[in-house]
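Good morning,

Attaching, inline, the C-alpha cells for the sequence recovery test we're adding to the shared suite. The designed sequence is right after.
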C-alpha cells in the first residue's frame, strides 16, 4: 500500500484503527489530517497524525508511521508540534488540513509556550 494523499491516509486508518470506536467515529464524526512529522512519538519513524473526533466529541490522535512501506497506526496522547514538517512540503498530505494553524502551533511549541495540543 502507498499513502499518497488524504484519501489514502483515511482508507488506511479505516482498515487499521487500533479500536473499533475510532473506526465508528471516523464514519460518524470528523477526521483532521494534522500533516507530516519527523517523529510522531519519541524515537519513532516519520509519519502523519490524524485527529479523529466522534460525534460525542471524544478525540483520538492516531499516528501513522512508515518504514519501508510498512505502515502502522498507534494512538498517541499529545501532538509533538515541534516535529511538524508540513511547511516544507508541497504535497497537501504532508501539510495537513490547516497548515497555517499547524505552523503557529509548531512555532509556539519551539518557544516552549506549550508541549501538547492544547492551544486552539
Amino acid at each position: 500500500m502507498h499513502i499518497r494523499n488524504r484519501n489514502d491516509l483515511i482508507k488506511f486508518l479505516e482498515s487499521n484503527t487500533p479500536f473499533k470506536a475510532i473506526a465508528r467515529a471516523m464514519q460518524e464524526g470528523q477526521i483532521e489530517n494534522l500533516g507530516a512529522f519527523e517523529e510522531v512519538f519519541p524515537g519513532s519513524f516519520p509519519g502523519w497524525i490524524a485527529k479523529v473526533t466522534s460525534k460525542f466529541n471524544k478525540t483520538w490522535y492516531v499516528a501513522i508511521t512508515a518504514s519501508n512501506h510498512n505502515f502502522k497506526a498507534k494512538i498517541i496522547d499529545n501532538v509533538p508540534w515541534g516535529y511538524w514538517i508540513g511547511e516544507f512540503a508541497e504535497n497537501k498530505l504532508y501539510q495537513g488540513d490547516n497548515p497555517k494553524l499547524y505552523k503557529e502551533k509548531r512555532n509556539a511549541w519551539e518557544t516552549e509556550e506549550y508541549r501538547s495540543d492544547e492551544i486552539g
